[in-house]
Amino acid sequence: MNAQPPVPFGGHTPSHQQVAFHRTELAPILSLYGRMVAAGEWRDYGISCLKDVAVFSVFRRTAENPLYRIEKRPKLRNKQGLYAVIGLNGQVLKRGHDLASVLRVLERKLIRAVD
Q: One Pfam family, short name please (predicted)?
């Protein structure tokens, strides 16, 4: 009797890899998220790992559209930059190669004048 390796359900293997955030990328994103939750600005988040983009979406309320999207697009690594922060209306607020510098556009929203 010959042993054969198991055949995946459906008879095929996925041909593409998903883009995802690495632990070192999630640490500064979740740090910023925690500070904004403590300030009462944000309440929920979602992570999507797709074929050519990974998205960290930030919500004020769960049922709404995301306030901001932090995107990672590896195809833009050599062009405009790997990371981008996109606003509610789809406008690119900041794009760049360094995640920390891209996230600064959101950290400015945390700083307010005290009366």
A: DUF2794
Cα of 53 vs its chain's centroid, Å: 9
51 vs 73: CA distance, rounded Å = 10
Amino acid at 37: V
Domain boundaries, given as residue ranges, for the chain:
23-110
Per-residue confidence in pLDDT tens, the chain, 115 aa: 566 665 555 544 455 588 888 898 899 999 998 988 888 888 888 888 888 889 999 988 766 788 889 999 888 787 888 899 998 888 899 898 888 888 898 887 666 544 4
Asked if 72 and 18 count as a contact pair (C-beta separation under 8 A), the reply is no
AA letter at 45: Y
